[in-house]
Amino acid sequence: MKVSVPKDVGNTSKKPILPLVPEPIKSDKKEDLTTVSLDSDPADHNSAQVKFSFKGLIGDHETPREILAWRCNVERALIGLDLTNGTNQHNMAKQFMRGSALSCFESAAAVPLTNHKVSAIVHAETAVNNFPPVGNAAHDTGVFGNLQAVVTTASNRELVDHLSECYGVDVVTNLLNDVVRDLLPNKTLQRVKRHSA
User: Fold this and answer.
1) Paired strand residues for 51
2) pLDDT (tens digit, 9 = 90+) per residue, 13-48?
3) 80 in a structural domain
4) Number of structural domains the chain divides into
5) Over the range 46-85, which residues count as b (16 or more CB within 10 Å of their CB) and which as e?
6) Residue 9 gets which letter from DSSP?
7) Has residue 3 been placed in a domain?
8) What are the pLDDT digits (tens) for 47-67?
9) How many CA atoms lie within 13 A of 177 on its CB side?
10) Burial, 195: exposed, middle or buried (Cβ in 10 Å; 0-12, 13-18, 19+)?
């Protein structure tokens, strides 16, 4: 019986995409770091504050490990700042990115927020269309006027205004995960998936 050895075995000339041993930490310049003051107890703004610094994400040259660490740091910052509103989380998360990472974040935001805006408009217009017509005994002009105002408001709202809704925090979480997914090389995710199973 003949045993064949894969070409990759023993080949140490290729550097792994996500090595098992952490790469040496490069010291970052102070101007490259983002610093926020976090409350030790996020629910109590009178609690002791801790300064937390981490490197912002540019997206062009970070290693996979740096991208994953950035994602954890952003989550820690959002929790420590007690940002429980999607709009506030969105605005703060943008402060932790530059370059292609910020472009990816903003372009990824357009799709779900447009969907939410369209859904709000459709629901408002459906309510107007289902309302009893003028001349019907059940028609109330005050209520009908309010329904028409809701359609106008839904149509005029900016996309980011939808982040203040109850689903806003989930949208921001998904956007941050999209940035990580888009910046990580595909092979990294495949290897992690293959080895973790």
Assistant:
1) 37
2) 666 666 666 666 666 677 778 888 888 888 887 888
3) yes
4) 1
5) eeeeeebebbbbbbeebbbebbbbbbebbeebbebbebee
6) T
7) no
8) 888 888 888 888 878 888 889
9) 7
10) exposed
pLDDT score for 176: 93
Check residue 22 and give its pLDDT.
65
Asked if residue 2 is part of any domain, the answer here is: no
Domain encompassing residue 129:
31-196
Q: What is the pLDDT of residue 41?
A: 81
Question: What three-state secondary structure class fits 197?
Answer: coil
Query: Letter for the amino acid at 2?
Result: K
16 assigned to some structural domain: no
Q: Which residues of the chain have pLDDT under 70?
A: 1-28, 186-197
Length of the chain: 197
What residues have CB less than 8 Å from 39, skipping those under 6 apart? 45, 47, 48, 49, 50, 80, 81, 82
